[in-house]
Amino acid sequence: MPDDADSPGRGATAYTTLAAGDGFRHELEIKRSRFITVLRRTGDEESARALLRSLRREFHEARHHCSAFVLGPDRSVQRSSDDGEPSGTAGLPMLEALLKRETVPGTADLSDVTAVVVRYFGGILLGAGGLVRAYSESVSSALALAPLVRRQRLRLCDVPVPHAAAGRLENDLRAAGYVMAGARYDAQTTVLRLALPDEPSSLAQAADRLAALSAGNAALVPGETEWIDVAIS
């Protein structure tokens, strides 16, 4: 599998992926051949292979259903398939397009993504070089338009406050740039949930800011860590 110097290392705490949903589709026509790219967020190999199976059924008359996927925060699982195209002309260029996609300048960390390119042959042979360019461009063009999110492993913290104060405090925390992870409602309180970097300095800073915003009436209660989707600004 290809190596990528910018890929996140073992124990990565953040990476970029597709926004959750049914996926994203994009089509190119190159010398009369149709290249339909389908991108979908997939958390494991079975989900990736299930997508490929469903597209084989949907586009059952297509000649090729080439695929590539990258999985895991550290991108430890990488697979590709040429599906009948000459060896190395489809799956590998698709995989490299996923691996080399810079989500911010100088950083390539896209993961948990499956790409399938469905090709309807148009009658004109592209040659090995033409196929490599076509499959690479198909995935790269789709990624340039697809909605992406930042996925981070964050510490979830509870902030119990009286119901009457919850709305204003939540708005103040959002305005201060904190990631909110929902709320739950008890008999006497609303429990706001903050998602914070899992670092002592970040937790201490948030606790101080919370105290200032609530005039000392709200406290931070750290909980477990979870993977959270964060919008890319």
Give an overview in words.
With 233 residues, the protein is an alpha+beta fold. It folds into two domains: 14-146, Impact, N-terminal domain (Ribosomal Protein S5, domain 2); 152-231, Alpha-Beta Plaits (2-Layer Sandwich), CATH 3.30.70.240. The chain is 30% helix and 36% strand. The chain has five helices and ten strands, in the order βββαββαβαβαββαβ. The strands form two sheets. Strands 1, 7, 8, 9 and 10 form a five-stranded antiparallel beta sheet that branches. β4 and β5 form a beta hairpin. α2 (91-100) packs parallel to α3. The radius of gyration is 22 Å and the shape is elongated.
Task: Outline the secondary-structure elements.
Layout: E1 14-18, E2 24-30, E3 33-41, H1 45-58, E4 64-71, E5 77-81, H2 91-100, E6 113-120, H3 127-145, E7 148-162, H4 163-175, E8 179-185, E9 189-197, H5 200-213, E10 221-231
Antiparallel strand pairs: 1-7, 2-3, 3-6, 4-5, 4-6, 7-9, 7-10, 8-9
